[in-house]
Amino acid sequence: MKNVLTYISACEPPAFDAESERMVRVQIDNSLELGWKLEDIVIAADFPFSYNGYKGVVIPREGMGFVHTRRSRGVNKVVTILWLYEQGYLNDSVFFHDLDAFQNYPFFECPDPQYHSFDLTVAQYGDSKTYNAGCMFFKAAARDIWQDLLRLCRQNGWDEERALTVGYPPGKDPRVGMLDISYNVGKYDTVKKWRGGIQPPRILHFHPNIRGNYAFYVQGRNEANQPLVCERVGRLITKHFRS
User: Fold this and answer.
1) 143 near 85, Cβ under 8 Å?
2) How far apart, in Å, are the Cα atoms of 20 and each of 9, 67, 160?
């Protein structure tokens, strides 16, 4: 399985913003401590970067059709995934997640067998009706789904989540499934989500630099009165955001 993240810069010259640079370091350190092999980590950005022995995959900016609008991140994510297919990076199963979606539980394949019958499984916001594309598992066979999603995004001005939800309604498509809420424990009803899904929670999805989030997720200043992230994730976020 490949552990995949993407980042398309909105500035010139292209680079990580300050928060994203810290988050990508947390992601690399976290993946390596979990036991991911360097060759199975794919972090694609439209500029060169390296950290802790990992060298990023550089996406060309010319001819990619990247857009910079309110919904651009979702469209650019689809464009980048299709480029990674074309370049041969995604000829295996894929664990895809955003920079702010932290792997809290050790796995190197989707750990829950009920999702393996789908070509693409996507996290949710908590209502079982709307996809959250911040965490996904998909197979090499899902390439045509990504091509269709790009078509829907381009034709309708949608982001990837809207294209998924409308084009592949949850519970109605045999190839696209929805993940348990433990794969997207994020803002709004956070402790309820943290308690309500498969245990232990798989993915914690938050921005460590937003006011109150460090105390809430890492220090345990919440209704559960305990940290929501595991010791490893909390330690790495503290290292990169508080030292």
Assistant:
1) yes
2) 10, 19, 21
Residue 68's pLDDT band (cuts 50, 70, 90): low
Picking from 104, 106, 133, the residue whose alpha carbon sits closest to that of residue 121 is 133
Other beta carbons within 10 angstroms of residue 210's beta carbon come to 12
Place of tokens 């997207």: 184
Over the stretch 93-142, which tens digit does the pLDDT of each residue have? Answer: 999 999 999 999 999 999 999 999 999 999 999 988 999 999 999 999 99
Statement: the pTM of the whole predicted model exceeds 0.85: yes
Cα 11 to the chain's mean position, in Å? Answer: 21
CB 168 within 8 A of CB 145: yes
Residue 160 contacts residue 77 (beta carbons within 8 Å): yes
C-alpha radius of gyration, the chain, whole number: 17
- Under 8 Å between Cβ of 134 and 100: yes
Question: Which residues, 6 or more positions from 97, have their beta carbon under 8 angstroms from its beta carbon?
Answer: 4, 5, 103, 134, 135, 136, 203
CATH for 2-184 is: 3.90.550.10
Q: In 153-200, which ranges are E strands? A: 176-178
Residues in the chain: 243
Domain residue limits, the chain: 2-184
Q: Are 102 and 3 in contact (CB under 8 A)?
A: no
